[in-house]
Amino acid sequence: MKKVKSIIVLAVMLMAVSAGARKSDDPVVMTVGGQKVALSEFEYLYRKNNVQQQVVTSLDDYVDMFINYKLKVIAAKNAGIDTMASYVNDMVTFRTELAQPYMIDRGVTDSLVEVAYGHLRENVAVSHIMVPVNGQYPYDLQVHVLDSIRGLIKGGADFGDLARKYSIDPAVQVNGGYMGYITGGMLPYAFEDAAYNTPVGEISEPVATMFGLHIIRVEDRRADRGEVKTRHILKVTQGLDDATVIAKKVAIDSIYQVLKGGADFATVAMAETDDPTGRTTGGDLPWVGSGRVVPEFEDVMFSLADGEISEPVLTRFGYHIVLREEHRGVASIEAMREAIEKQIMNDERLELLRERSLQRYAASTGAVILPKGIATLNKVVKASGGYNADARKALAGNRTQVMKVGGKKYSFAQIADMMPEEDFPDVESMESVFREKVFKKAVADDMMATLPDREPEYRNLINEYSDGLLLYEISNRMVWERPNTDPEGLEEYFRAHSGEFVWSEPHYRGYVLSATSDSIADKALDFLQTNTVADEALTSELRKRFGTAVKIERVIASASDNAVVAYVAFGADKPSVDGRWASFRAYGGQVLQQPEKATDIRGQVSMRYQQSLENEWVKSLRDTYQVTVDYAVLNRLR
């Protein structure tokens, strides 16, 4: 709780600084109960309302709706709803989640997109050696192992031999560590980045991925060859004996001769291919580029001309005949931007984006760690024999300014609650921790606190969500829940307007007893008529004596509303009802010509009562709070 409180306090301080720096290019369009409404907020909600509504609301009509909406929000705040834990927690969660995309600098994103697109335009042939990293094989030890292997390779040892000896890649015994050509987006980004930044013939430093720790040798580079659209016919040989493989070769050669004679490829594929999907699609394959299929297949598909059919080619799966239908080059960066950005947001580059965005924000706002403060930190930590309880106590009372964030300088005493609670052994580790855990957190808090001023869309969404929470709760209290929480008021309203609530036909008010047979229905009705059973206990008492052979329901319905009611209360013919119920009886009811109380016509009365409460409430708010509209500003939207 101490940490949460300190973060909230700092955030409030930063938001106050931000509010003082708010730009004046967004004029006030109205003041409602002392609360100023910016034109941008009004326009945002006005436009959104007309997009969502099938009937366009005029500007003048919307002004009245908007004023009522803002008056209710003010009433909610005056009722203290904005201090409720549920509201505060909802807003913290919403702000945090909504802020994430706005906390990423567009320029940083663009730079990573350009790098990723550059990788897509080039293929890199790589070999690698991968060793495990886990509790049994510590990271530092494995880095040392890979460094030793690098040294051996540079000294003339064979890469493939060492790969087969040390690499845990399942394919290494077959390929000696050679992975072929890769392109952007195929592999974990750390591996990709190391491969693209290593010159041909050189070996990378150890690089960690989710699979292990790697060293990468770059064998070659080439321009990307684009993508190819193909169909294929496959005769599977994988795992088969020699005689069957020979038979498959004979079959594929025969198919090739048929195709050369002009037969339709798709038709032959549906009849002959061993690929289950190909039998329904005519051998159709999606667009693919380099590194996406086995090398033998890739070489063939890029060597063909559009419309050309290959001779049978053998891969580890079997014999293929390939039809190249179309080809295309790498799409433009504009066409690929959305897909690249989505990939960036879903791999390790997301943290890189956040880190670089934070750095750029700090630089642009002059956020810095102050040298005098760091000197004081080091002095206190050294004197205390490390960062410990003594150091924390000394710093908590120290007024030396240690950082400048959001245009304001902060002393150790001001940020005492933000300082780490765990111990650190030396000056160097504590200085690093301060930079990573305290300063960066303060910059991130400032970045979020200033978002409403820097990002109008974010500000509008926050305001809309906050007002929505407040409006819902206050409307619930004042209007929506009142038919349930104020039955006396509902009944009073009904009696005052009873002439407005009429039925066009009589209604039965009471219970309908349903049973699986006439005999059980008669026994159940007799039990109820000869015993005193409270209304709330009817179901449980009947269940005790008759199990699931009986049910009882309270109804208010006319003969035209309900066929069973028409039978038990109005003498109509017995209805044919689907299901297990065969017999019906009326119990404890009466026929009413017109409703006698609010609950007889609850739905209609509740709606009218709520509307009456709404009207009275709005009138009271209008009488209580002053509203002014600057029509000169408002007319900008006409």
Number of strands: 17
Radius of gyration: 38 Å
Percent in strands: 15-25%
By helix and strand content, what is the structural category? alpha+beta
> What is the residue-mean pLDDT, rounded to a whole number?
93
Distance between the termini: 50 Å
Low-confidence stretches: 1-23
- What's the tally of helices? 27
User: How would you name the oligomeric state of the polypeptide chains in this document?
Assistant: single chain
The coarse silhouette is: extended
Percent helix = 40-55%
Biggest beta sheet attributes: 4 strands, antiparallel
Give, in spatial order, the strands making up the sheet with the most strands.
Answer: 4-3-6-5
Would you kindly provide a brief summary of this structure?
With 638 residues, this protein is of the alpha+beta class. It has 27 helices and 17 strands.
Can you characterise this structure?
This protein is an alpha+beta fold. It has 27 helices and 17 strands. The strands form five sheets. The chain has a four-stranded antiparallel sheet with strand order 4-3-6-5, with helices on both faces. The chain has a four-stranded antiparallel sheet with strand order 8-7-10-9. A three-stranded antiparallel sheet has the order 2-1-17. Helix 1 (2-20) crosses helix 18 (427-449) and helix 5 (106-120) crosses helix 14. Residues 1-23 have low confidence and may be disordered.
